[in-house]
Amino acid sequence: MKVVFASTPTQEERINELIQTFYSRIFPFYFSDKEISKFERLKVLVITPEKAQQLSTLKTSYQVIASLQTLVNILEAPQDKHRYKHLFAKNVQILEDLDIFFPFDLGNFRINDNGTSYNQANFSMYAEATNQYLV
User: Fold this and answer.
1) Bridge partners for 57 per DSSP
2) Of residues 29, 21, 63, 25, the one with CA closest to residue 45
3) Burial (Cβ within 10 Å: 0-12, 13-18, ≥19) of residue 15
């Protein structure tokens, strides 16, 4: 007999929050809206109901959370990304092993010589609003 612990709704919410972080904070910093729209069509980081069933154990949900959080932390720190190339690749592999499509390597997230991304100057419909206007 094998005992398997199921993931909690809080863990599932955390996975969805981290995926949303990629689409609202990470991708708009590095890619154009057209490219991000293509990622949506290609189902990058999309958790289908079938995949959600596969991720329903405590172990797999924690693996996804840890991998996504590690990738976010690496990509949000603009300096010395190359030092984390191995760690980045390892976490991408964990996502791929769990059948979560993330077709990037660290080279896809380029920074200019002045420390800004190639898309930083552009506005994005995917980016979080920096302020809110109340009506």
Assistant:
1) 6
2) 21
3) buried
| CA–CA distance, 112 with 54 (Å, rounded to integer) | 39
- The angle, 0 to 180 degrees and rounded to 10, between the axes of the packed helices 58-76 and 85-97 is 150
Q: Which two tokens stand for residue 52?
A: 């959600």
Please write down the HEC assignment for all residues of 46-85.
CCCHHHHHHCCEHHHHHHHHHHHHHHHHHHHCCCCHHHHH
CA distance 105 to 66: 17
What are the structure tokens assigned to 116, written together?
């800004």
Q: Whole-angstrom Cα distance, residue 127 to residue 27?
A: 8
Report angle CA 18, 20, 23 to the nearest 5 degrees: 120
pLDDT tens, residue by residue, 28-68: 988 999 999 999 999 999 998 888 888 788 889 999 999 99
CA distance 72 to 84: 12
